[in-house]
Specification:
Number of helices of chain A: 9
Number of domains of chain B: 2
Largest interface: A-B, 29 and 25 residues
Largest sheet of chain B: 4 strands, mixed
Number of domains of chain A: 1
Strand content of chain B: 5-15%
Oligomer: heterodimer
Low-confidence stretches of chain A: none
Radius of gyration of chain B: 28 Å
Shape of chain A: globular
Order of helices and strands of chain A: EEEHEEHEHHHEHEHEEHH
Number of strands of chain B: 4
Mean pLDDT of chain A: 90
Radius of gyration of chain A: 18 Å
Mean pLDDT of chain B: 87
């Protein structure tokens, strides 16, 4: 890849009727970066993420994801990204093994690759004893870790995570972030939305969306300096309080 | 191709993992096929008869005996005034009142002429109509009996009788089961196919797994084939069970080649699954999918010729039924089972059904969007 930026967005906008959900956002995400995408509920995070994943067509603007044009090469982009939505989206009536096999299969992995991946993931997540249990029998934290591992089963260039740790206990959250670091070390760019400010501190760079616009974008350290705050919590509150629209 | 393999494998795993769905797919239609044709019978029996007899003669007794022994009527009231008999209609106990005037016997014997009066409760129009005509037939029959008894040696027959003999082609016993069972089977297959497909896909929308599929490079037609093929196979399996019930349960021996029905059904299922798929692309929740399917199927079945003959519908409704895939399948299955129609007889039906399949499926594929 010539450009080291795996996501480039320029003036990306999404309008539903006369509601501007995402209002001309522009940013770049570098390869291997952990990019935090923050904002209050209804600020437009999920909409922006859905556009970048090719689930939602932008109303205007330009973007390239993994080097492909968002408008022209949507199907190419889909091969190079992983996505974990807010809703849990593995098949609950399939076993852990069957879910890995299914998603590996539809991403076009070979039988051998699927075998290896399954063994690797089951070991990494310590699920050896549960690999043939139905996913619905697992606790939420385990499910979320599994969903993340399945989202990157095809080793994508970028993985988009939409509030992956919502409702998960602190220990599991910490384990989840270990998985994220692990993926990042393997060169996978991580694009993550969250409401937990301690998680924001783990990111290389953070953007904060308010009312569909990006109000701040920098490293957590610089943001704290700019906004004269001790922690990310304070930065977020200072910005998010300006929001006009509610949920 | 291997993507499709994984989609199919997943779908079959899910279907066979859910025992309640399997029961619904296989046992419910079988039960319905056993029960519905027993009830959905055009013959009217158990007509409640109330008689107002002003005559009380031997002749009236004979006639009443004859009516009772026909098996169609149940005498619920026998009184000597019309008022009394009529209250039984008013209180919905009787369907028909037969009034026998005083001097009925005398009039027949002496004057060779007598009249009766029938009053019909037309709230249940079909029962009343058929009941009245059965009753008239029985009386006419009885009338002829007395005539032959009284006119012993007629020099010239007083009345020429035209006797009509009817031969029922293709269904010699005029058994309604021959007529109903194949059509009920066709209807059940339609219901099952539409609901299963529509609900299955909308369920994935509700759970959110469809979005997960939409961010993968899975192609539209792969996803759709992955859904249609399993239900197509299930549909043919249900059809086979239905045929077994028809053959061994109802002892209906199809005159025609059942392979022709299979051929037609396999094309027909594409129409029905396409319809389910189309509904799923418009519905966001299972509730919406249920309601849309229900209303569409209601129209299709009512206008499909299952209960009422399409030929006796008003002209404009008959034209509407050309757009109704169910009517083609019911017609074909009846034609093959009862009449033994061959491929060349149902050629046009096949073309029309292929047209429907292409139309509905293209519409569904066109409306199925991976992006919003």
């Amino acid at each position: 890849m010539i450009n080291q930026n795996v996501i480039i967005a320029e003036g990306l906008t999404k309008i539903f009727g006369n509601f501007v959900a995402v209002d001309h956002i522009s940013f770049e995400v570098a390869k291997g970066e952990i990019f935090g995408f923050l904002g209050a509920n209804g600020a437009g995070k999920t909409t922006a993420m859905r556009m970048l994943c090719g689930l939602s067509t932008p109303s205007s603007g330009k973007a390239t994801v993994a080097g492909f044009d968002l408008f022209k090469d949507t199907e190419q982009i889909k091969k190079s990204i992983g996505y974990m939505s807010q809703k849990f989206s593995l098949y609950e009536d399939l076993t852990i093994r069957e879910n890995i096999q299914f998603y590996g299969g539809i991403y076009g992995l070979s039988k051998k690759q699927i075998q290896e991946k399954t063994t690797y993931l089951v070991e990494q997540l310590h699920l050896q004893n549960y690999q043939n249990s139905l996913v619905k029998s697992l606790p939420l934290g385990w499910k979320q870790k599994l969903a993340f591992s399945v989202a990157i089963v095809h080793d994508p260039a970028i993985v988009f995570l939409d509030e992956p740790t919502g409702g998960v206990d602190p220990v599991t959250r910490r384990e989840f972030w270990e998985l994220i670091y692990d993926a990042s070390e393997r060169g996978i760019t991580v694009f993550v939305t969250t409401h937990y400010m301690d998680e924001a501190e783990y990111c290389n760079r953070v953007s904060i969306m308010v009312d569909g616009r990006i109000e701040a974008l920098d490293t957590p350290k610089n943001l704290k300096k700019t906004f004269n705050s001790l922690c990310m919590d304070e930065v977020f509150l200072k910005l998010a309080r300006k929001a006009v629209r509610g949920e | 191709m291997s993507v499709l393999k994984y989609l199919l494998q997943k779908e079959f795993r899910q279907i066979f993992r859910d025992p309640s769905i399997l029961k619904i797919i296989f046992i419910m239609p079988a039960l319905q096929l056993i029960i519905i044709p027993l009830a959905a019978d055009y013959e009217v029996r158990n007509i409640n008869l109330s008689i107002a007899d002003h005559d009380h003669s031997v002749y009236t007794q004979q006639m009443i005996q004859k009516i009772k022994s026909s098996g169609y009527f149940k005498l619920v009231n026998y009184s000597s005034t019309f008022q009394e008999a009529f209250t039984s209609i008013e209180s919905d106990k009787a369907d028909i009142v037969l009034e026998i005037p005083a001097n009925f016997e005398q009039n027949i014997v002496r004057e060779d002429h007598a009249s009766l009066f029938i009053a019909v409760n037309a709230v249940n129009g079909m029962k009343a109509n058929l009941g009245a005509s059965y009753l008239q037939n029985i009386i006419l029959n009885y009338n002829n009996q007395i005539r032959t008894k009284w006119i012993q040696f007629p020099p010239i027959p007083p009345q020429t009788n035209i006797k009509v003999s009817v031969s029922n082609w293709f269904n010699p016993m005029m058994s309604y089961k021959y007529f109903m069972v194949p059509a009920v089977l066709a209807t059940l297959l339609t219901l099952l196919g539409t609901f299963l497909t529509a609900l299955n896909i909308v369920r994935e929308k509700e759970i959110g797994t469809i979005e997960q599929i939409n961010v993968t490079p899975v192609k539209k037609y792969h996803f759709i084939l992955g859904k249609l093929i399993p239900f197509w196979i299930l549909g043919l399996a249900v059809l086979t069970i239905g045929f077994l019930i028809m053959r061994f349960g109802y002892q209906i021996h199809p005159v025609g080649n059942m392979l022709i029905v299979y051929l037609f059904a396999s094309l027909y299922l594409l129409v029905i699954l396409g319809l389910g798929l189309l509904i799923s692309t418009y519905a966001d929740t299972q509730q919406q999918a249920m309601l849309i399917s229900f209303f569409l199927l209601m129209i299709f079945i009512m206008l499909g010729g299952l209960f009422t003959s399409i030929d006796s519908m008003p002209d404009w409704v008959q034209k509407l039924t050309w757009l109704n895939p169910v009517s083609y399948f019911i017609e074909v299955i009846r034609m093959v089972v009862l009449k033994g129609s061959g491929l060349s007889d149902i050629k046009n039906h096949i073309f029309v059904i292929i047209g429907f399949a292409i139309f509905l499926n293209s519409w569904a594929v066109w409306n199925y969007k991976k992006t919003t």
